[in-house]
Structures are given as structure tokens and as C-alpha cells.
Amino acid sequence: MRKIFAYSLLSAALFAGACKKSAEEKAEDRFEKAQENVKDQAEDINDERKDVTDEAKDVAKEQKDVAEEQRELGNAQRELSAAAANYRRVVTERLNRMDARIAELEARGDAKARDTAAKLRARRSELAAKMDRLEDRADANWEEFKKDTDSKLDQLQKDIDEEF
Predict the structure, then answer these.
(1) How far apart are CA 89 and CA 60, in angstroms?
(2) Per-residue model confidence (pLDDT) at position 20
(3) Is residue 163 classed exposed, middle or buried when 0-12, 13-18 and 19+ CB atoms within 10 A define those classes?
(4) Which CA distances in Å does 49 have to 31, 37, 52, 97, 111?
């Protein structure tokens, strides 16, 4: 019985040691897994930081592009305004010369000349009114506006010249 008791104690000691080691191993495994998890999380955070940095660079580039486009738009608008002002000046000078010719026609004194001068002056007034609306039309259809106005000015000039 002593032998059985001794063997029981020995096996209990061995078994208890094996259980302890197993618990230690489990704790060690959990620790290693936790360490791995922390490492993975740190890598994920670093990846996210890099992504955020890359996106911030993209945003900065886009903002720079938008600023450049706004500068170009401002320049184009200034050029259009300058072109419109120059066009207005040229057309006004041309209308003034037409006014002088219409006044000469009217000065002839006969009824036909006065009637023709009145019709020409009405067409001239329509063109002047169109020029008063230049700013309203300049942005949207500048080329179309200019082509139409030039065509009407040319026709009016031709009709005035035919009277002389």
C-alpha cells in the first residue's frame, strides 16, 4: 500500500506539474496572440496614417488645381471684359460715323431722304440698344452676338452707302 501511495503521490505531482505547465503554456500562447494582435493593430494604424497622409496630399493637389483653374477663369473673364469694352468702342465709333451720314442724308431736305434717314436711324437705334445689352450677352454667346451685330452693322452701312 505504501507503494501505491508513493506512486499516487508521484503521479499526482507529475500530473499537477503537467497541468501547471499546460496552464503556463496557455497563458504564454494568449500573451503571444495578444502581442501579435497589438502588432497587427499597430501595422493597421500605420497603414491608415499613410492612407490619410496620401489623401491629404491628394486634397492639397486638388486645391492647388482648383486655385489655378480659378486664376485662369479670372484671366479669361478679364480678357473677355477687355474684348467687350474694345468691341463696344469700335461699334460706337462706327455708329457715330453712321449718324453723321444719316444726318447728311436728312439734310438733303426732300421727303424721300427724310423718310429713308428715319428708317436708317431706327435700325441704328436697334443696334445701339443691342450694344447696351452687351454685358448681358457677352459671357454666354460672345461669338454669336458679335457675328450677328457685325452682320447688321455691315448691312446698315451698305444701305447708308447706297443712298449716296
Answers:
(1) 43
(2) 56
(3) middle
(4) 27, 18, 5, 72, 89
Q: d(Cα 74, Cα 19) in Å, to the nearest integer?
A: 81
Determine the average pLDDT of the residues in 19-24.
Answer: 72
Write out the three cell numbers for 11: 503521479
Q: In angstroms, rounded to a whole number, what is the distance separating the alpha carbons of residues 164 and 116?
A: 12
Half-sphere exposure of 28 (CA within 13 A, CB side): 6
Give Cα 57 distance to the centre of its chain. Answer: 19
Buried b (16+ CB within 10 A) or exposed e, 91-105: beebbeebeebbeeb
Decide if pLDDT at 13 tops 70.
no
Residue 114 burial by CB count (10 A; 0-12/13-18/19+): exposed, middle or buried? middle
- pLDDT: is 13 or 105 the higher one? 105
pLDDT digits (tens, 9 = 90+) for 124-155: 999 999 898 887 665 668 888 899 999 999 99
Q: What is the DSSP string of 27-50?
A: HHHHHHHHHHHHHHHHHHHHHHHH
Cα separation of 88 and 153, whole Å? Answer: 13
